[in-house]
Amino acid sequence: MKKIITILFLAFFIGHIQAQAKKPTLMVVPSDNWCITNGYMMQFANQGMIETIPDYKAAFQQSSDLLLVVSKLNGLMADRGFPLKNMESVIKSLNSYAAEDALRSSKAGSEVAESPVDRLKSIAKADIIMQLTWTVNQTGPKKSITFNLQGIDAYSNKQIATAAGTGAPSFSAELPVLLEESVLSYIDEFANSLQDHFDDLFENGREITIRIKRWDDWGDDLESEFGPEQEELGFIIEDWIADNTVKNRFSTTDATENMMIFEQVRIPLYYTRNGRERAMDTRRFAKGLSDYLKDTPFNIVNKLTTRGLGEATIFLGSK
User: Fold this and answer.
1) What residues contact 201, with CB distance under 8 A and at least 6 apart?
2) Among the listed ranges 46-55, 165-174, 227-236, 298-307, which one has the minimum average pLDDT value?
3) Does residue 161 contact residue 193 with C-beta atoms inside 8 Å?
4) d(C-alpha 154, C-alpha 26), whole Å
5) Burial (CB count within 10 angstroms: exposed 0-12, middle 13-18, buried 19+), residue 244
6) Residue 2 and residue 11: Cα distance in Å, rounded?
7) Beta strands in the chain (DSSP E)
8) What is the pTM of this model?
9) CB atoms near residue 130 (< 10 Å)
């Protein structure tokens, strides 16, 4: 009897812990393919080049099908305990000039370009983007949906989960019903893959990219020696990143006297300040390195910029 009680207690305890586990925040986004197929695209100028990107605002304003499909998928994921950001609501929070007109801001001509898609992700602050593509098939009076659902880490842009298939033909004419019939056999495995990825982030940190560059009028470079031990600046920066990443995990993919690129930089999901837990992001992590270089004994003036959610660049030599 005691053994049975112990087993039941352990099962309850484990279930309680799993229920308290933090879930990744998701946002459902129509894929580029769907936007192109349905004519929801926009153009913007980026450093003299014209780029074409999805026009999500027009898609949500004009496509009733998109609203229905996203609402249904939001509901299916919410039923499985995953919090979702509603993309339509996020778009409404963007000022029209920020989303369409002020596509590139500048300060003294040295700001890194940020596309409307990067700006959207920054405001949404979703951990994972659920990118959805679907088509409706018709055979006689029956319809079915072929879908492709991709879970993409919003910081690293890596695909971490996928579900794709075609539902059984149905007499139903309602798009949400067809979608639900198509994805139900895949959605639990998809959700489990998302949670496994998020659990890995907790244990091993989130992946970001840190770039180090120098202004051409700066008198020093990354091979210049600094500090009491007169060590090369590039190695000083590399040591700081090693000391501050989760399990010292990162990759130095390129290093010259003028620039360094650190990829797969694993940063913690949260940090504590004034006794309160706060979400760690790329800008907050990179600011630690920026402040470290500004401080004694290095006294290196620098400028920190970010692009999207997962990339930061520090320019050495001036603001």
Assistant:
1) 24, 127, 269
2) 46-55
3) yes
4) 9
5) middle
6) 14
7) 26-30, 41-46, 49-54, 84-85, 128-139, 142-153, 159-166, 206-214, 225-226, 231-232, 251-255, 259-267, 270-273, 276-279, 302-307, 311-316
8) 0.78
9) 24
Asked if 284 and 240 count as a contact pair (C-beta separation under 8 A), the reply is no
Residue 122 and residue 307: Cα distance in Å, rounded? 9
Instruction: For 120, list phi and psi in degrees, rounded to 5.
Output: -60, -45
Residue 143 CA to residue 308 CA, distance in Å, equals: 39
Omega of the bond leading into 297 within 30 degrees of 0 (cis): yes
Q: How confident is the model at residue 14 (pLDDT cuts 50, 70, 90)?
A: very low
| pLDDT at 189 (0 to 100) | 93
Residue type at position 45:
A
Instruction: DSSP letter for 180, please.
Output: H
Tokens at 274, concatenated? 């004034």
Structure tokens at 271: 């940090």
Task: At 27, list the tokens.
Answer: 């946002």
Contact by Cβ (8 Å): 242, 303 = no
The model's confidence at residue 94, banded by pLDDT at 50, 70 and 90, is low
